Amino acid sequence: MLFFLGKDVCRWLAQCQECIGRIPELKGAELHEQSFAGLLSGSPPQAVREKLVRWGVSDFSSVFSRAVGLNAVFSQPPTLESLAEEFLRNYHSYADLMYRCYMESQPHLIVTAANFRFDLYASGEYSRLLESEWAAD
Questions:
Q1: Distance from CA of residue 42 to its chain's centroid?
Q2: Contact at 8 Å (CB) between 6 and 71?
Q3: Are 33 and 16 in contact (CB under 8 A)?
Q4: Residue 54 burial by CB count (10 A; 0-12/13-18/19+): exposed, middle or buried?
Q5: What contacts 49, CB < 8 A, 6 or more positions away?
Q6: Closest CA to 110 of 47, 27, 32, 45
Q7: pLDDT value at residue 67
Q8: Taking the chain, what is the end-to-end CA distance rounded to the nearest angstrom?
Q9: Could you tell me the maximum CA-CA distance found in the chain, to the nearest angstrom?
Q10: Count of other CB atoms within 10 angstroms of residue 67
Q11: Residue 5: is it exposed, middle or buried by C-beta count within 10 angstroms (0-12/13-18/19+)?
């Protein structure tokens, strides 16, 4: 599941990078996908933290960073047979190190929720939000 969450997070990171690329004042500011990965895993907006806790995700930092770390290494979910027993027993430690390697692979500006605000939505929640917006039009 972490791998598939990581795919979604990595798509979001790429979208953040794409949006930043359209803002002339931020060009050359060393804002990279790692900047937003650090924001999500380290200091998301308070409303996002509260929503994650309501969803039962108390250690969001580990969940998001490990998901990104696994996606930095694997392009597809590896088969069970392709993974060493050592990796399976200690995948969390390896995923933590993969994330750290990903974060160190690109110099980047560290950003905070004070500068970049966002929200998270569950699939059904987002669908309902879109439906209500369409109904209002």
A1: 10
A2: yes
A3: yes
A4: exposed
A5: 60
A6: 32
A7: 96
A8: 37
A9: 55
A10: 25
A11: middle
Structure tokens that stand for 31 in this block: 């804002």
Q: For the chain, what's the residue count? A: 137
- Here the tokens at position 109 are 């500006």
For residue range 38-82, list pLDDT tens digits in order: 999 998 999 889 988 988 888 999 999 999 999 999 999 999 999
Q: Domain coordinates of the chain in residue numbers?
A: 2-136
Decide: 34 and 102 in contact? Cβ < 8 Å.
yes
Distance of CA 47 to the CA centre of its chain: 16
Nearest CA among 23, 53, 12 for reference residue 115: 23
The per-residue b/e assignment along 100-114, b for 16 or more CB within 10 angstroms, e otherwise, is eebbeeeebeebebe
Residue 109 CA, chain-centre distance (Å), reads: 16
Q: What angle do CA 60, 3, 108 make, to 5 degrees?
A: 65
